[in-house]
Recover the amino acids of this structure.
């Protein structure tokens, strides 16, 4: 049975043995678990999940699930060492470090696993090396050019706000990646990542977005978007081509 709607009051974090017992009852005995998030740092409340990466000796495929145990909601990513290593590297290639950040900050339960230490070292190296730059920025340039053009000409308030949010998220991601920074996650984590790296740019983007929603003026946000676009080569309207894979084909009959 799931817990009732939680309050935000502080609760004692689950102890290590309770976590291991809950995981063992669900998956058998794991090689180890990475325990991260608010409960791991002692800042959890009654609404906080128990965030885990359960590393088994072998899985057919990695997956993620939630379940309830001992009054806590567990949010568990299930991997073996190879699937976890692969997914950390794939995220890095896309300018993201969600898993690597979780592994890097996590406590290991139980302690003493050589494989866990090796994976933590990989995660630490990923976090230190940052995001690889793409071979070219044409796709990103074309997207920003198109959204900026649409926003400049938009007269419908609802459409303007949707375009503004699309521009905001993409330009914040691109600002980080252009500077070799890894994205710690979507949504609120995007804002945190940008603010950590460049607080003045973050404040400028936030003020521009707030002005659009408050006053309906898009000029500040368009100026920020143009500056980001200039960082990756400037506008791209003509001369753009993107090939789709040859296997993208389905007979009609």
């Amino acid at each position: 049975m799931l817990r009732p709607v939680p309050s935000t009051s502080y609760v004692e974090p689950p102890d290590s043995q309770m976590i291991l017992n809950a995981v063992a009852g669900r998956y058998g005995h794991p090689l180890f678990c990475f325990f991260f998030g608010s409960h791991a740092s002692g800042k959890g409340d009654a609404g906080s999940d128990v965030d885990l990466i359960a590393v088994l000796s072998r899985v057919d495929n990695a997956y993620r699930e939630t379940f309830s145990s001992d009054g806590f909601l567990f949010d568990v990513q299930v991997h073996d060492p190879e699937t976890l290593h692969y997914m950390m590297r794939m995220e890095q290639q896309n300018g993201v470090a969600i898993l690597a950040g979780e592994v890097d900050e996590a406590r290991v339960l139980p302690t003493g696993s050589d494989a866990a230490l090796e994976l933590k070292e990989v995660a630490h190296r990923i976090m230190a090396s940052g995001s690889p730059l793409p071979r070219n920025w044409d796709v990103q340039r074309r997207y920003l050019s198109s959204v900026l053009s649409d926003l400049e000409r938009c007269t419908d308030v609802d459409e303007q706000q949707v375009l503004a949010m699309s521009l905001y998220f993409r330009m914040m991601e691109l600002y980080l990646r252009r500077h070799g920074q890894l994205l710690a996650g979507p949504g609120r984590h995007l804002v945190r990542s940008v603010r950590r790296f460049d607080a003045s740019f973050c404040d400028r983007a936030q003020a521009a977005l707030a002005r659009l929603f408050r006053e309906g003026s898009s000029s500040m946000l368009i100026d920020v978007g143009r500056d980001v676009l200039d960082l990756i080569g400037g506008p791209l309207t003509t001369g753009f081509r993107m090939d789709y894979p040859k296997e993208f084909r389905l007979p009609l009959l």
